[in-house]
Amino acid sequence: MPPSPAQFVSLAMAERLLRKAAAPELWNLTAEQFQVTLERSVARRFSSPAAKTPLPAPEIERYLESLHAAELALACACSAGNEAAWEHFVAEYRPGLHRAARAIAGESAARELADSLFGDLFGLRESEGMRRSLFDYFHGRSKLTTWLHAILAQRHVDEIRRTRRMEPLDDPEGDEGSAQAHSMAHKNPSPDPERARYLAMTQAAVQAALDALHPRDRLRLAYYYVEELTLLEIGKLLGEHEATVSRKLDRARQDVRRAVEAALREGKKLSASQLRLCFEYAREEWPFDLTRALSATNKTPKWRKFSGIARTNEGE
Amino acid sequence: MPARDDDKAMDGLLRRSLARDAAKAGECPDADILAAYYERSLDADEVAGYEQHISQCALCREHLAALVRAESAVEIPAEPVLVAAAALAQPAKAATPERVSTPEKPAPLWVFDWRWLASAAAALIFAAVVYVRVIQHGPTALFSRNEVAVSKPQTAPSPPPAEELYAPAERLQANHESPANPPATLKSNLPSLQKKMAAPPPPSRAEKESAAPPAPPPAKPAAPPPRVSPGPSVARTSPGASSGFIGGAMARRGTAAGTAAPRIASRQQTPAPSTSAKTAQSEQRAASGTSAGAASATAATATATPQADAKKESEVADASAQSVQTTAANDQAKAPAVAGAPAGRQLSSLSQTVEVTAASEAVYVAEKIGALYRVTPDGLVERSSDGGATWRPERLKTKAPIVAASAPSGEICWLVGRDGTILVTKNAKKWKKIWPPAAIDLIAVTAQDAKSATVTASDGRKFSTTDGGKTWKQLKQ
Fold it and tell me: Parallel, antiparallel, or unpaired for β B453-457 and B402-406?
């Protein structure tokens, strides 16, 4: 539900931003319409409970100035059902959107993913008898293309997760620990009776060390080990250079390792040989070949060039 | 157990532990926030809060991973030649109000199929690079130094017809005005640079042609073949010709709206005159050093380094007339996209602008060390220590293509390029990487000194710094 028109954004401010957006007259976008869109954006930004009330005007003005006014105007006009604006949007954004869909979902599912998004943007859905366009949820805080790509990414990942829930439980990727433990039991006819305890201790120590990391360090590790992003991609997400990502990844991993060793040695009073056993069992239980993991994807393994981590993994 | 096995164990443990993060349903940011987070346009407090969440939320990480892959796929630069052709085919592609009244239908999807596009573009790019290097350095530029002595131009690959590469250029050729007069200022510091160069300067082209040496070397005839079109070759072959240098500053063509137009137009208008006409034109350019046109800095090229012109003249004369025509067509092809569009359009169409302007060159003169620098069409920076006879790639702390440059003095130079790349040198030797104001492609830079500069991002935002890039301030537009 849009907020009342004059709560945060004056009509004069809306007119000024509309001029800044340089929306063509053909779009028939009025300052009142744009004001409603701006109001919605401001309300969205400052809707958190911690937000100060009433909001200081300079802060609102600074926020409004930071918006992508031209693209917000396009979204507003498209949401209002202007045909010229919609044609402009299709002409300008459709090719890139299909390219992004192909990058996310592959050739086969890309068309459906993109067309579904176009349908929602056009306003095929109805809510309470009214046509609702997905453009209503664009608040101008990013480029329109980035927002569209984010929606594509979200929809694709959500669909994958939905599908994953339907897959059989014996999928080795789904529960690799149990499956591989089962296989290891066959490989190891006489396992160490302490093996399970060592593994549990090691796992708990790693989890504790990860929880103690700074969020950005944890993010780097997760992007690298779980999402299998390249250093360049991680750098784009975190605003860092590849070399910086590589260096900080290496440092974070060393920190985790030191913390795990300290926890096992001092907390659990394990000897050096027991410590070695912990790592050996972990390696057998949860093997992780980063080289294979990355080559399984369709990406160029750029990390090879940079990472000390990569070198250690290629050591064999 | 060896240390590397411990590392492998740690890798597996890390992956397993991090992969067990659950999705925190209900708290995840929506697409608007994720997009803004990716573009780093959130406030600092928001970033801290969302990063805290994302670091623990597997779902958000997956969303962002898919987003960055999509962005990376879309950001893959279209090859310059194809982009130039596309820009010509659809000159009003940019999001302008005029365009709305006559919206064009989107191109067929198969056009953007990267599988064939990549291979075709690579072949065309290779051909374009070969031409540019042949035109710039003569045929020997294709070979290493050792090979130059024994290799001659006939070994250079034969170029495909220019019409195939830049056919759309012909349709827009008529839209261009006659060139502005050559700019007034030649390099005021060029004489000092020449003194610092070790090699004695060869005679200027005018002297060479008027003096008519009594016994020209048999291997290289004094007069070039009459069929060679001198316009592009004159502009291309000498370092001065390829430079946009005025007063020691690097004038990067096309990086700012308006700067590219005069140069390209002037080269475009050179209608392949005869040798004598070329000489007269050259002399006229040399004499017209005071005519106006500060914006047409790059057009002040032909007379900048006459000795280099003379040095390269015979080599270029050996090049086939077809390749020279290709260059002319090349210039014509680039001209509409660079010179014909207003600034707003250039900014609104990032990749096209970048790629097209990247085909231009610039030279910046580092007086103290007697070196020349230029930005190559493929975004590299090259350095010459012998007045432009030979060029070597400059080692920079980036692999991103350089797009624009600005040199407020003979020692200071700022470079900007893709992925927020900013490099600056204070002594023309070491390049320092500057942290960008945003992780976005940068398309222009205007530097005042080593500390102060203004960069323009691909989305039109401008940022300025007065402390060497430690802090940036966004300028109001």
Answer: unpaired
